[in-house]
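RECORD TYPE: inverse folding
INPUT: structure tokens
STRUCTURE:
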């Protein structure tokens, strides 16, 4: 007897042997994967004895995707700051909007992002840093109710700068170090480990906004609590200039010096790094969250992912936020990750589709420190599974399911999503909350937010608007 029985076409297991099973099936009971194998073998035990049977003969069944860099508060900010590099992008548009949020608007933004992620195959994610004005508790509780799996970082800071620029953070986002640190502990005590799907992390701001003392305090406490830390690092050249001038260290050297490397740390972007820094990342087991769309759009540069992988760095994938990517679709992000390395290195074999799929699944699970639970379809693991419809022109003929997923698919091809053994989306319909209400709330909230912040919502196009 199984709760859910998925009768597949192709099963991409991501198990230790990386088996791809043709005409396969997966049985799920009490949230756990109980059987994986050939359909004709498993049918005898599960076809007529399961509560829910999903016929997926024309589909690819695979582990759910894990997005390791998400800004929930930026869902309402799509296209608010096109054509700007990072620091003006932050100062002139993104921070003023985020600094004007009311809790109900931040919640509407978070709902919109979670909706998009579930509909595009993400079953788990890492939020990079919420602040008090967003009403964090309400956001965490919605995330839990949605059914998705999440590590949620709370921003911690005690300075107001970014790199060599002092006092540039919008006043609406400024929080005292003690306040932000203690609130992280409160959230951790209240929510960490909730139903095995919610974890609370530390999210220190970028160097320039956090003192050395506070970074070290965060590092020590995270290790004591056995929780994670995530931070933007070496995203732009200004980050290298700052740590080199002020501390005499390159960005990864600086992070290592203050204790922010190791298996519980996810460093985001990590574009401007040296060979020695890559060696440190590999030796310490630190995760790099690669966000190619954001790096390309903001002209930040191209991360040295091919070299990182060759040095056994755990590289995972992230979409970043609405204004730097315009989408939270991790399937589309896989293609950008696969194409950027050949362009950067002028080597067509700089990265393989198999490696990119690992980045979006197993490596993401390892980044969140839950690879013992999810990231692959294996007996005994929790059932985070998505079903991708390949019966479409752009995925035919299905000569290579891995290549097609990375180079040809998009999130809209995902038709079913199972998270922690619960059917959360079926036939592209969300089952845990009302999609239409979320979109309507987001539209109203965006209007109010932009008006209050004094930022025009008119499209920034070079063509006449009539």
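DESIGNED SEQUENCE:
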């Amino acid at each position: 007897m199984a709760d859910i029985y998925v009768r597949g076409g192709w099963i991409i297991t991501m198990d230790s042997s990386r088996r791809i099973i043709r005409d396969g099936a997966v049985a799920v009971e009490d949230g756990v994967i109980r059987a994986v194998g050939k359909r004709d073998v498993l049918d005898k035990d599960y076809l007529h004895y399961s509560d829910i049977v999903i016929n997926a003969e024309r589909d690819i069944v695979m582990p759910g995707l894990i997005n390791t860099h998400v800004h929930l508060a930026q869902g309402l900010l799509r296209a608010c700051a096109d054509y700007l590099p990072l620091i003006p992008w932050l100062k002139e548009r993104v921070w003023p909007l985020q600094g004007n949020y009311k809790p109900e608007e931040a919640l509407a933004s978070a709902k919109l992002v979670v909706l998009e992620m579930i509909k595009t195959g993400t079953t788990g994610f890492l939020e990079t840093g919420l602040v008090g004005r967003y009403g964090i508790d309400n956001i965490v509780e919605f995330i839990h109710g949605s059914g998705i799996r999440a590590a949620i970082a709370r921003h911690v800071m005690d300075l107001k700068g970014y790199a060599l620029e002092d006092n540039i953070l919008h006043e609406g986002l400024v929080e005292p170090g003690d306040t932000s640190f203690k609130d992280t502990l409160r959230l951790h005590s209240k929510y960490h480990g909730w139903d095995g799907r919610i974890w609370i992390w530390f999210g220190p701001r970028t160097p320039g906004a956090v003192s050395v003392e506070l970074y070290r305090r965060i590092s020590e406490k995270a290790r004591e609590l056995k929780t994670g830390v995530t931070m933007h690092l070496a995203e732009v050249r200004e980050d290298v200039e700052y740590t080199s001038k002020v501390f005499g260290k390159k960005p990864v050297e600086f992070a290592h010096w203050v204790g922010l490397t190791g298996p519980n740390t996810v460093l985001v972007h990590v574009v401007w790094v040296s060979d020695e820094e890559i060696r440190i990342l590999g030796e310490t087991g630190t995760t790099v969250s690669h966000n190619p769309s954001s790096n390309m759009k903001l002209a930040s540069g191209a991360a040295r992912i091919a070299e990182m992988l060759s040095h056994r760095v755990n590289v995972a994938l992230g979409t970043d936020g609405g204004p730097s990517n315009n989408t939270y679709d991790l399937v589309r992000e896989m293609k950008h990750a696969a194409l950027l390395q050949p362009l950067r290195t002028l080597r067509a074999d700089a990265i393989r589709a198999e490696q990119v799929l690992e980045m979006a699944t197993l490596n993401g699970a390892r980044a969140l420190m839950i690879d013992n639970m999810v990231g692959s379809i294996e007996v005994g693991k929790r059932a985070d599974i998505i079903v991708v419809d390949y019966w479409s022109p752009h995925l035919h003929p299905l000569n290579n399911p891995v290549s097609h997923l990375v180079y040809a698919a998009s999130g809209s091809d995902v038709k079913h999503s199972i998270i922690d053994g619960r059917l959360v989306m079926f036939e592209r319909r969300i089952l845990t909350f009302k999609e239409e209400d979320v979109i309507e709330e987001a539209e109203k909230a965006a209007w109010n937010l932009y008006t209050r912040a004094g930022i025009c919502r008119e499209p920034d196009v070079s063509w006449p608007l009539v």
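NOTES: The radius of gyration is 21 Å.
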